[in-house]
């Protein structure tokens, strides 16, 4: 098998693992399930209000940002729990910082949503 074939097969396998990970997040994590519901609502609103291409780009970016950071947060929490299952101040700090990153991403996404949709609702 050539180097190119091995490379392509490796990338396809990697995509499969990534898809599996995304499905695991959707199946097992309530926070991702909530974020997915919000993403669906925002997508429906986007079609309803016929938002511009730029607004779509910002909205999709915001949704992707929140869901990606939520996945990283879930990973950080799982690793922390695996390493130290009992309560520990440093583990608590790590979990709080990871949750804080999700909070920042979510607030950013809300602001983007307000900037996009307030003119459609009140304009």
Automatic annotation (TrEMBL):
It is found in: Cell membrane. It is an enzyme of class 2 (transferase). Keywords: ATP-binding, Cell membrane, Kinase, Lipid biosynthesis, Lipid metabolism, Membrane, Nucleotide-binding, Phospholipid biosynthesis, Phospholipid metabolism, Transferase, Transmembrane, Transmembrane helix. Its EC number is 2.7.1.-. It is a multi-pass membrane protein. Gene3D superfamilies: 1.10.287.3610. The chain crosses the membrane at residues 32-51, 57-76, 97-122. One of its GO terms (molecular function) is kinase activity. The lineage of its organism: Bacteria, Pseudomonadati, Bacteroidota, Flavobacteriia, Flavobacteriales. Belongs to the bacterial diacylglycerol kinase family. This is Diacylglycerol kinase family protein. InterPro entries: DAGK, DAGK_sf, UDPK. Pfam families: DAGK_prokar.
């Amino acid at each position: 098998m050539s180097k190119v074939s091995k490379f392509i097969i490796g990338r396809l396998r990697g995509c499969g693992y990534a898809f599996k990970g995304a499905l695991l997040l959707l199946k097992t994590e309530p926070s991702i399930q909530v974020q997915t519901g919000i993403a669906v609502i925002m997508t429906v609103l986007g079609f309803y209000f016929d938002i511009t291409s730029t607004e779509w780009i910002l909205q999709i970016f915001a949704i992707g940002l929140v869901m990606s950071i939520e996945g990283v947060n879930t990973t950080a929490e799982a690793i922390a729990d695996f390493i130290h299952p009992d309560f520990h101040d440093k583990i608590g700090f790590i979990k709080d910082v990871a949750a804080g990153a999700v909070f920042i991403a979510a607030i950013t996404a809300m602001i983007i949503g307000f900037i996009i949709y307030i003119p459609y609702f009140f304009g």
